[in-house]
């Protein structure tokens, strides 16, 4: 469903998003904000976390907004929501938020795929992903590549590779050959953002640069989205209201890794695994390598 709310997006930008299935670059963070968020992340990575049951990367990579105030703050940043609102309407919820970090000279990739393949929401347009660059996202550092207009396709067949260098939950890869000429390189400076539709075919190459590539992805939905795999889904209200009764609302954490937020994080991941893992081979797990 298309919306036409007043926002920081121009009419031309809104039309471009619906035509291409993506939009970039959008400036959402100033230099001071980029510095603050990257410093907060670096401090978190330097610290010791003896009470955590899983490695820190587990919490950064999956539903980070449930346990980290800085992730929730970034996901609810007014300038980000202002860009999302004309696409989803005034009522915006966070379904997921995660850091995508590629170390310098790493082989990590994101194979070409459609997000909605395993989300359980079908082929709805009541969702959009925002991807915020916290460090330069260039062709050399493994920026995202989009296939223009590919959101006009249905959900296409995918194969689960479970490759050890794949950042996706199942190593999923679309069963369509995507040539280099079909790819639009999403080059972003720190503080810039892209938006893309869940049916848009996209992926990214290894980081061949000498610096880390840090991105933060937020999966936004509106109350019209309907989950087919489970009766009710978890979501964090970012703006507006939700009168649908289709979602269990969760609050942003006030401190990092509190007992309450960690317990809630574990429960939501267990519920989410039933959605993301639907149809997966019985001897496999999410984020499991060969």
Task: Summarize the helix and strand pattern as letters.
Answer: HEHHHHEEEEEEEEEEEEH
Distance between the termini: 39 Å
Shape: globular
Strand order of the largest sheet: 1-9-4-11-2-12-13
Low-pLDDT stretches are 1-7, 286-290
Number of helices: 6
Kindly report the name of the CATH homologous superfamily.
Answer: q2cbj1_9rhob like domain
Mean pLDDT across all residues, rounded? 90
Identify the CATH class.
Mainly Beta
Largest sheet composition: 7 strands, mixed
Number of domains: 1
The helix/strand class is alpha+beta
CATH architecture label name: Sandwich
* Helicity range: 10-25%
Query: How many DSSP-defined strands?
Result: 13
- Which fold does the CATH topology refer to? Jelly Rolls
* Percent strand: 15-25%
Cα gyration radius (Å): 18 Å
